[in-house]
From TrEMBL:
Pfam families: YibE_F. This is YibE/F family protein. Keywords: Membrane, Transmembrane, Transmembrane helix. The keyword Chloroplast does not apply. Coiled coil: none annotated. It comes from Lacticaseibacillus mingshuiensis. InterPro entries: UCP031503_TM (IPR014564), YibE_F (IPR012507). The lineage of its organism: Bacteria, Bacillati, Bacillota, Bacilli, Lactobacillales. It comes from the Bacteria. The chain crosses the membrane at residues 35-68, 80-100, 128-155, 167-194, 214-235. The keyword Membrane applies.
Length: 243
């Protein structure tokens, strides 16, 4: 048994032990989303417009993640609507951010690995970065929207302004820490490399790889910050219409 299969099996066992039938549904959603990501890569490599592929696949990923993560349609419905509204706004943020950051493509640190390979593969790396920037925010959007919707619906008429503020602060705070710790953890080797080579701080900030990944994290941060109030608005409006 390989390390990858052992870890996957451990994850499945833990999801079943903790979540039971819902854990199995979450595992299926994870597997389905992995297949959708592979499909997105195949379509982009096949010549389809990266942004169009990301938008369509993103819509499906949000639906799969939200509707398979909860059996309560009162939670899933508002969460999905809010996620779609946020995703629409995030597309504009990602497009503008990537165009002005000029971080598409490969950095100087990739030169040795790419030596001997041709980069004329017929795909715009800038458009690919826009697509990946959008897709990388979907998990954070779906998680925040579902958590906010579930909390507000559970509180019902007892949801006060202070209670809604507590929910927003808790979800945004934990999401931001998760995103930034994931970023620094995944790039710790690069940070050590920068330190060993005595890169000046301004050069680190302007490094293409570092800047590109940091901008991707900031996209997710913006998405989470927008998802919380948007979900509260959608849930509140639906509650007023039903009341």
């Amino acid at each position: 048994m390989t390390t990858l299969s052992a870890l996957a099996l451990t994850l499945l066992v833990l999801m079943l032990a903790v979540g039971g039938k819902q854990g199995l549904s979450d595992a299926f959603a994870l597997l389905l989303n992995a297949g959708l990501m592979i499909l997105a890569v195949i379509l982009i490599a096949g010549g389809f417009a990266p942004l169009a592929v990301a938008a369509v696949i993103g819509l499906i990923v949000l639906a799969v993640t939200i509707f398979l993560s909860t059996t309560d349609m009162n939670v899933a419905g508002p969460a999905f609507v809010a996620s779609l509204l946020v995703m629409t706004g995030v597309i504009a943020v990602v497009v503008v951010g990537v165009l002005f950051s000029h971080t598409g493509g490969f950095g100087a640190e990739d030169t040795e690995d790419l030596e001997g390979f041709s980069l004329t593969v017929g795909v715009s790396f800038q458009q690919v970065l826009i697509a990946t920037g959008l897709l990388s925010t979907l998990g954070a959007i779906a998680e925040a929207a579902t958590a906010v919707a579930a909390g507000l619906i559970e509180l019902g008429d007892d949801a006060t302004a202070a209670g809604r503020q507590d929910i927003a602060q808790a979800i945004i705070g934990t999401a931001l820490n998760t995103l930034f710790f994931g970023f620094f953890g995944g790039f710790s080797a690069l940070f050590i490399w920068f330190a060993k080579l005595r890169y000046p701080f301004w050069e680190v900030l302007n490094d293409q790889i570092f800047a590109g990944e940091l901008i991707q994290v900031l996209f997710s941060v913006i998405a989470v910050a927008a998802t919380v109030p948007m979900t509260m608005w959608v849930v509140g409006r639906r509650h007023r219409e039903e009341g």
